[in-house]
Each structure stands twice: as C-alpha cells, then as structure tokens.
Design a protein that fits this description.
Oligomer: homodimer
Shape of chain A: globular
Number of strands of chain A: 16
C-alpha cells in the first residue's frame, strides 16, 4: 500500500532560489492529501501531473501566507472545472474566514460542497478511515499552528504462499487472512492468523511539523515515526533569530528527531537567505545522520 | 526612453499548458508598472529577475482570481523584505477589501504605506507624471472591470548633431532642446525648436484590455495606440460561449484592433481548452495581420 510524500514547496516566507512556499502531496493508498497550500501550489501540481480533483482533504497548518495563499486559487480552479465531490479543509478558523470572505466578494457559488473543519491547539484525531488516522500536533508559533500526524491504523499482511497450498485457501480466505483474520480449514480446524502470514509489518507514520519554535512537547506524539518533516528555517548561527521568530534551526530539528527516535528526518521551510543549504543539512546530520533536505519535486517514501 | 511590456502570464481562469494567470510588467523609462497580478506573479518576476521593490504602482483590472490572487503574496513579500516606499494599488473597491481583510486577519502591520486608489467604471486619468498618463478604460465583464491606457505625454526629441556645432550649444541647451525648448544663440538670435531637432516623434501608447465582451465603445479611447493587448479567450467557433461569459474571440479582438487603427495587436487570456493557439492567431490575422500571441516571458516594445 503506497505511503509517500512529494514536496511541492520547501521555502519559508519569501520565494527564492527557485524554491516555493510550503505544500506537499501525501499519497496514501492512492488517496491524495494536500498539506499546506502556499502560493502557486496548483501550478506545482500541474508540473507534476497531480490531478486536483483527486484531492479530497486539505490540511493547513496556520494562516501565514506562505502556507495558505494558494488555497483560494486551487478552490477556484476546482470550481471552474465543475467539481462535484465535497472538499474537506482542515485548519485554524482564520483559514475558513479568509476563504469565505474571498468567495463572497466574487459572489462565487461553488459547484461542490466545501466543508471546513476548524483545528484547535490540542491533540485531536481529525480524520479516521479504516486504515488511516490524522491527528493534530499543537506547535509553538506566532499564531495558532498545528502539525499533522498521518498514522496507518492497519496494514495488510503478506500471506505465506505455502500456507495457501497447505490449507487450500480460497480467494476470500486469502483476503481475510491479509486483513488479520484467523481461518477455519475444511476439516474444521482453526488456524490462527499469525501462523498464516509473514512477519507482521509495523504500521507506518508520517509527521509534518511546521512552523514552530523548538518544542519538546511534540516528542511523545511523533515517537518512532518513519518520516518526520520538521522545519529548519535557519542554521544554528541564527539561533537567536530563530527564537525571536518562533522557528527552528537545523540542529534543533535534528535534536527533536533524535529524541523522538524517528527513522528519517526531512528538513524544510528554508529561509530565503540560504542559496546553498549544505550547512543546514550538515549541522543536522551531526546530531541525526539519517537526515535529508526536502528537495522540491522529490517523492519520499514513508517507511518500507 | 524605454517603453515595453513583458508578459508574465497569458492564460485565463485555470492555469494550463505551462501558461499562468494574467500579469504583465510595463517598463516605462525604467519605471516598472505591474498590470494585474494572478497567482504566482512574484515567482514569475523572480524567474525574470524583475525586482519587486522597483514596482511602485500596481493596476488591477477586476476582482476575478486569475487577475488578483497573487497580489497578497507580493505585498507580503514586499513587507517581509522591509520595504519603506509607498505602494500604490489601483483597482475596484473589492481589491482593496480583500487585501485589507487578509492583512487584518494576520494582524500584519506593513513596513510601508499601501495606498489604494479605487477605479470606477468611467474614463478617468488615474496617474499623471511629467511624461506619462494612465487612463481607465471601462470594459464589459461580469463584474466591474477596467482596462488601462498608458500614454506618453511628452517624448524627448533627438537633436540634429549639426545644430549643436552650428549654434555652439552648451550641455544645458542641448537638454533644453531635447525637452522641447527654443534656444537663444550667443548673438541673441532665437532658434525655434523645430529647426534644431530631427523629425518629432509621435507619443507612444499602450492599451491593456481584459476581461471584456466585444465592446466598440473602447475604440475612441484606444485609437491609434502602438500596442493593444486585447483578450481573446476563445476562437470564433466558441462565439456563443464567449458572449455568455463576457469574453471575446480572436476575431473580435482583431476587429477592435482594426477599427481602432492600432499598430500592433497582442492576443492573451487564453482558455485552458487550447493547447495549440495557432487557430486563435490565424483567425485574428485574417482581419488584422499585425497580430501576435502574448507569449509568456517575452518582451514587446511599445512603438518605435
């Protein structure tokens, strides 16, 4: 089952060096989730052939422009292409307000239901499907801001081929085993699921944490995730500026990753002052070696 | 004196085929004017190395998103880069409202004065400098919408080199002649300006007309302009759709250009349905041969 994230924008407030404001596409089992929507996101999606109407859920961390200025344009294009399916938008109340205001200004009757879900500064499960949950992660920024944890709830197991032959399993039985069921053989014997499958795989998780000051309270929430995207706006040499603006350094992001024992760290939300991002990467890798830069147009797998 | 326009975006409502929503940079004597500001305009400017802080005046035709969604992002970036100079924005009242609302939402105190000038559905001189005037052109769209006429008021003349030698003109006198003055020679004789300059050049003009239904009332306003940018959203085969949506066909744009006796016509605001724009160009050139497509990242000279 696919679980991967594609970076559309990795820069902080001012677009620079060919880098764009924050936006990511999370693909979970071919369902697309958009995370943040900086200006130009719909064009980035076009470049990568991401179909806008495959997106049913958009998650916005906070109201700062580099995370939300592309949302009205995307909604407008969905409307102009006569979308019918509901679109769910999760974010602080201000996101709802700004979209509503702009739609009213142009007296725009949308062709589809736009459903707002206001996030709060608390840990809350905001989406639950049969195999995925999304949970808010309160962050520490100048305005209300949450990260998002995407956690697999159930992961299909691989069945052992020899078990299929041994117990003469039907197609329906194979499906049931993959979904965690025990089975009953023709002779009436019950075979427990664990004897039919290969080693059970760990459920995977992706955490998106931007924008925020250094914040240890997020560690229990993101403990052991496979992939952590954490903002690293500045290098450690700009620590005081990072503190003043409620942002993090590369070193701080790596410290969080290490303390939370995540598998891999992705750095993003880079300040426009950095053309060359190597110093940022290097200072993080000193603390947490399995770190990469969130390069745009690159897809990163969540777990394995 | 430079007078040229660079196309940043030429598409209509939905970005497609690598084309972007409407925006243009007019360079008049190295002063930059931004005309419309669709989503992503600041990134297009970055690609062309257009410095945002060289822009002091922005003209917005109407409130539809493909003409204005990039404005808040550009203002935000100007603010983050600590601009001090005033920024003048000309457009319908809704443009003012949407920017104000978004700034208030983020409690954003701008580092510079933002001065709104509300355009009305009438012909009005909205800018006047010593050598340029800008005049609104009321259009016929689904919402209040104006075009803009940029007209040179005074054009420096070229002086005849032999006149400099003959009358032993000083540097100050040469400057005065170029600016239209007669001069007095050392012997007290008055030489009229016309005897000192090469042939007087015609004042140049650029007209920007989008979005609009076919509208003959604009013809007297744009009569004889050197360059007319006119929307041509559809081909003539979609005439009824053009009428329904208050847009024009290539043929209609060319008819306006011909009746107004302009020098050159630029077609723009292309519907996303057209990957290949040749049919649009061809139908216009049948009526008005000196027509070009407003290709993005191309600079067109206004007059000669």
């Amino acid at each position: 089952m696919k679980f991967e994230v594609t970076i559309l924008g990795s820069n902080s407030a001012i677009p620079a060096h060919g880098r764009h404001p924050t936006a990511q596409i999370l693909n979970f089992n071919d369902e697309l989730f958009l995370i943040d929507c900086g200006e130009g996101t719909q064009m980035r999606m076009g470049e990568l052939k991401v179909k806008r109407n495959k997106i049913n859920n958009i998650f916005i961390s906070h109201i700062h422009g580099d995370h939300v200025f592309g949302l009205i344009g995307l909604i407008n294009s969905m409307n102009l292409s006569n979308r019918k399916k509901p679109l769910h938008v999760f974010g602080p109340v201000e996101v709802h307000q700004t979209i509503d205001f702009q739609l009213q200004l142009t007296k725009n009757e949308l062709s589809f239901p736009l459903v707002f879900h206001e996030t709060k500064m608390e840990v809350e499960q905001i989406v639950e499907t049969s195999n995925l949950e999304v949970i808010t992660i309160p962050l520490d920024h100048r305005v209300a801001c949450t990260g998002f944890l995407f956690r697999e709830k159930f992961r299909e197991s691989n069945i052992r081929p020899e078990a299929i032959a041994q117990y003469e399993l039907s197609v329906d039985q194979i499906k049931a085993v993959k979904n965690g069921s025990d089975i009953q053989t023709k002779s009436g014997e019950t075979i427990p699921n664990k004897d039919l499958i290969k080693k059970k795989k760990k459920n995977r998780a992706y955490a998106f944490c931007t924008d925020t000051a250094y914040l240890e309270s997020i560690i229990p929430l993101i403990q052991d995730v496979d992939l952590l995207y954490h903002e690293a706006t500045f290098t450690e040499s700009e620590l005081s500026r990072a503190k003043d603006t409620f942002h993090c350094t590369g070193k701080q992001a790596a410290t969080i990753a290490k303390k939370a024992n995540v598998h891999k760290l992705l750095l993003g939300h880079f300040s426009a002052r950095y053309g060359n991002l190597s110093p940022l990467l290097e200072e993080a890798q000193e603390i947490f070696p399995n770190t990469e830069l969130a390069h745009e147009q690159v897809t990163f797998e969540v777990g394995s």
